[in-house]
Amino acid sequence: MSVLENSFHKFEMYDDTTASGKNMSGKNFSKLCKECGVMNGKTVTTTDIDIVFNRVKTKDTRIINFVEFQQALKEICVKRFKSKSPEEALQAVYGLIEGKKPRSVGTTVSRSFFVPCAPGAVMGNSQGDGNGWDAHRMTSSA
């Protein structure tokens, strides 16, 4: 398996419990293009990615296989690297993708934790917090 094909499979499987390991959805193709820098927002936009995806996929499907993926990259590369020859542009796009894997953007790690305090310790505002609890005494005023 090539390095490019390995990246294809990593993005293809991302966040898809029904993934077969052989076909990539449009959502994951777009994620790959965005995270790897193929889509730069200037010469290659989200719209361009969606148009190319729909052009290369088999009719009446919502997925592409690795061969269709390579065809999509051939179409995108000349738009992304206009000053290069088609072969140089394709190699440049491969270079952006090879060895990459999806990031979990937007995932939040909880950093909250409980810190036990000694009985009678001063906690917060001694005026009470307005919800029926006196933060100083840690007793209910209700």
Q: Descriptors for this entry?
A:
single chain, 142 residues, mainly alpha, Recoverin, domain 1, 2 domains, two-stranded antiparallel ribbon, two-stranded antiparallel sheet, 5 helices, 4 strands, elongated
Structure, briefly:
Helix content is 42%, strand content 6%. The protein has 142 residues and is mainly alpha-helical.
Radius of gyration: 25 Å
Helical amount among residues, as a percent range?
Answer: 40-55%
Instruction: Enumerate the strands of the largest sheet in spatial order, edge to edge or round the barrel.
Output: 1-2
**Please, what is the CATH homologous superfamily of the largest domain?**
EF-hand
Protein name: Tubulin polymerization-promoting protein family member 2
GO molecular function: tubulin binding
Subcellular location: Cytoplasm
Organism: Callipepla squamata (Scaled quail)
Polypeptide structure, described:
Pfam families: p25-alpha. This protein is mostly helical and 142 residues long. The chain has 2 domains: 3-97, Recoverin, domain 1 (Orthogonal Bundle), CATH 1.10.238; 108-142, no CATH class. Helix content is 42%, strand content 6%. The chain has helices at residues 3-13, 26-36, 46-56, 66-80, 86-97; strands at 24-25, 63-64, 133-134, 139-140. A hairpin with a 4-residue loop joins strand 3 and strand 4. The longest helix has 15 residues, at 66-80. It is elongated. The model has no long low-confidence stretch (mean pLDDT 82).
List the helices and strands and how they pair.
Elements lengths: L2 H11 L10 E2 H11 L9 H11 L6 E2 L1 H15 L5 H12 L35 E2 L4 E2 L2
Antiparallel strand pairs: 1-2, 3-4
Helix pairs in contact: 1-2, 2-3, 3-4, 4-5
